[in-house]
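Q: Structure tokens for this one, please.
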Amino acid sequence: MQTKRTVFGNRLLPYAFLLPQLAVTVIFFLWPATQAVIQSFQREDAFGLSTTWVGLANYADLLHEPTYLNSLKVTAIFAPAVTLLSVGLGLVFAVSLDRLVRGSRVYAALLVWPYAVAPAVAGIMWWFLFNPTIGLLPYLLAAVGYRWDHSLQPTDAMILVVIAASWKQVSYNFLFFMAGLQAIPKSMIEAAAIDGAGPVKRFFTIVFPLLSPTTFFLAVINLVYAMFDTFPVIHATTGGNPAQSTNILVYKVFVDGFIGLNLGSSAAQSVVLMAIVVTLTVIQFKWVERKVTY
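A: Here is the predicted structure, written as tokens:
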């Protein structure tokens, strides 16, 4: 089989095409990451007028800081919950829509729309829905005997931010699962149905194994999303409260760095957060990917 190759008339032209992307990567990722690593070994005053090299002192302080250890615990609950809920709902909606004959395009458009909503707007919307004073959902919960108040109850606050963050990401997962379902040969499912396999058995023996590459990819993407991109949701809904019960790691970096002006500790926290995400991603690719069927 002959492979088509693109031939450029000028040797510099391919590098010119790559230059914008490389510039964005260097300016908005590599340079800030390098600055964060350097700052994590320093201690600066609030105005940045004096800098002292402290080595690993900022990292050592994190191990003895109760609020940071609490953020680790909160993130360990929040990130898997958002990943499981958003990926699970995306799969359920995709499978349900794949079985729908009429109106599938309309439902698909409605399911995709939430992805266009900004995270902060999504957080504010769910904050209004769960507002103990004016919200509709607390009123319905009160009718069944549950008094909702996310401003006082840590469990309620965690449920609120998990729902708000997951709702924003379901549309993204839905699109990928729909593409994966459309790539599965219908003849395989029809053959299994002729052999007597029911819908549940066909899903777990044929559909879901063939969707494993898509599921693995979305698990990695959603975990990174939960660790980094959920900052606007937290900021718009709970602000890390009550009693630091929703103060995830990325939000604590903001609070200590931009509000507390403790730049050295904030930089150390950002480096640790990046290391955690990279480690989890490597673990997923090294061990979880072995169970993926390509």
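A few notes: The mean pLDDT is 90. The chain has one domain: 58-291.
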